[in-house]
Design goal:
single chain; 235 residues; alpha/beta; 7-stranded mixed sheet; 8 helices; binds S-adenosylmethionine
């Protein structure tokens, strides 16, 4: 890491941040854990037995929270967690990790294959592009990721499922809310306390797919290419 990549002010703020201290004390890989914990306390998104997809999972704090919520007490989990990031993630027990860029068709196909036709109860996306500092370009790249997450949700979410995405409150935000309203029955913004006040970061929660989105998913499934027959038949 470059010696002066973080300013002294940023380092001081990080060191004194109560969420950083709590994350360290509780063994979370980042303070981001508390954003999901807080949203889940309000919205009860993570339920035992759920299939959850964690997009943009590295370093893994959200996956840790998901695992805690699905833990059985007997050492395993009830449900499934499938995580994806373009950066490697240190393993977490019972979390299936896929390394790849969510914008690539091959990665999307692999993620779909991992789900094996099962629809998810919950899709969470904390994905964020590397910021260039050019607000409009950054907002456009964020919007692309969110649109892909919405398309993925239409194809892979249960009708009563939920999609939670990170977004920026700024240019393009109202269009994003409109897009969520086209797809979901209930849409709500969420700004957990662990998300810094001065950050444009916020979250959007969509619950329950609208009939039109479900119809689109069914049509998609009918027109999807038939998987190739196995090369070796029964003997
Ligand atoms: C804020 S971090 C996520 C933190 C994570 N939720 C946690 O609790 O540890 C954002 C992540 O999104 C990932 N990301 C950004 N663009 C991506 C893409 N196109 N495909 C997959 N992951 C992406 C980044 O690599 C980064 O690890």
């Amino acid at each position: 890491m470059a010696k002066n990549r973080f300013s002294k002010a940023w380092l001081d703020q990080h060191r004194n941040d109560p969420y950083v201290k709590q994350a360290q004390a509780r063994g979370y890989r980042s303070r981001a854990a508390f954003k999901l914990i807080e949203i889940d306390q309000e919205d009860r998104l993570i339920r035992p037995g759920s299939l959850v997809v964690d997009l943009g999972s590295t370093p893994g704090a959200w996956s840790q929270v998901l695992r805690e919520r699905l833990a059985t007490g007997a050492g395993g989990i009830r449900g499934r967690i499938v995580a994806l990031d373009l950066l490697p993630m240190d393993p977490i027990a019972d979390v299936e990790f896929l390394l790849g860029d969510f914008r690539e068709d091959a990665v999307l196909a692999e993620l779909s294959a991992r789900l094996g036709g099962e629809r998810a109860d919950l899709i969470v996306s904390d994905m964020a592009p590397n910021l260039s500092g050019v607000a409009t370009a950054d907002a456009a790249r964020m919007a692309d990721l969110i649109e892909l997450a919405v398309a993925f949700a239409i194809d892979h979410l249960k009708p009563e499922g939920a999609l939670l995405v990170k977004c920026f409150h700024g240019s393009g935000y109202s269009q994003l809310v409109e897009r969520f309203k086209q797809v979901f029955l209930r849409v709500a913004p969420r700004k957990p306390k662990a998300s810094r006040d001065k950050s444009a970061e916020t979250y959007l929660l969509g619950r329950g797919l609208k009939p039109a989105a479900l119809a689109q998913a069914r049509q998609q499934a009918q027109t999807a290419p038939v998987p190739p027959a196995p090369l070796v038949g029964p003997v």
